[in-house]
Write a structure and sequence with these properties.
By secondary structure, the chain is an alpha+beta fold. The chain is built from 15 helices and 6 strands.
Length: 276
């Protein structure tokens, strides 16, 4: 990945492995705003960046360039990953279609909260709820930082309902208190099996949400979230139908250590074409 870090911006010239619409609209993140074609505002913790395509390159404007180098995973070789997962014609087409996808290095707390809100929900509503939730965080002038765990404790069940969480309000209220019982940084040292067992103990977290948190919060690519779109992908590839647990296991075996990356290309490809 060819990029240049300047005082208040990052210049990304390798647009074959970086496309901001692919990255933000492939279902992994809910804290951004689209201003126009290839022009997005991105929010993470107390950080902000504007990402815009101009003169054959992406310009990431931010006062925290080092943070966003990590956030956009700019030092990972996605060309190599794409070659490793391109094991059949179906996957090759998916990779070509979503060539600019990168798995973000998001805040773990934001991912846990965001994917609990995402259960049986739609992207537009999730993003609106996450946007309103940020208003409980610190006012940074043009935006709000994501609330700390301490500040999340001040939000009532009714407050969560008022920002659109619906029945998930009870789950959020409960999970926030469960998170007090662990050190989130320490959980990053746990193996995937132990992590998933713990995640499933959180209020409002089922197998699919747990796998999403593992992939997008912990960067564990030895998991494969399965939803309606991935069920269709599985049938397309394996020509059979199984329960979702078996589908996830089979897809992890098939793609090995790059399973999580494959999930994003396949999900983005299938959802994009089936919704047309």
């Amino acid at each position: 990945m060819k990029y240049e870090v300047q005082k208040d911006k990052i210049l990304v010239e390798d647009t074959q492995d970086f496309d901001i619409s692919h990255i933000l609209e492939c279902g992994q993140v809910f804290t951004y705003k689209k201003n126009g074609e290839n022009d997005y505002d991105v929010y993470s913790l107390d950080k902000f960046a504007n990402v815009k395509y101009d003169n054959n390159k992406y310009i990431i404007s931010t006062y925290d360039p080092e943070y966003f180098v990590q956030y956009f995973d700019l030092d990972t070789d996605y060309e190599k990953i794409k070659k490793n997962i391109s094991r059949n014609e179906y996957v090759i087409k998916a990779v070509k279609y979503g060539h600019g996808i990168r798995i973000l290095k998001q805040s773990l707390l934001e991912v846990i909260i965001g994917f609990i809100i995402s259960a049986n929900n739609n992207i537009k509503r999730i993003m609106k709820t996450m946007q309103l939730l940020r208003e409980y965080g610190e006012n940074k002038g043009k935006y709000y930082s994501f609330p700390t765990l301490e500040k999340l404790h001040d939000i009532t069940i009714d407050d969560f309902k008022n920002i659109g969480a619906g029945y998930r309000a009870q789950y959020l209220y409960c999970t926030i208190r469960q998170l007090d019982q662990v050190n989130l940084e320490e959980t990053k040292k746990w193996d995937t099996q132990k992590l998933k067992k713990w995640l499933l103990s959180l209020c409002g977290v089922g197998p699919k949400v747990a796998d999403c948190i593992l992939l997008f919060g912990y960067g564990r690519c030895d998991c494969f979230p399965v939803d309606t779109w991935i069920e269709k992908v599985y049938i397309d590839i394996f020509k059979k139908k199984e329960n979702r647990t078996k589908m996830s296991e089979d897809l992890v075996k098939y793609f090995d250590k790059n399973a999580g990356y494959a999930q994003q290309y396949l999900f983005f490809y299938k959802r994009s074409f089936d919704q047309r």
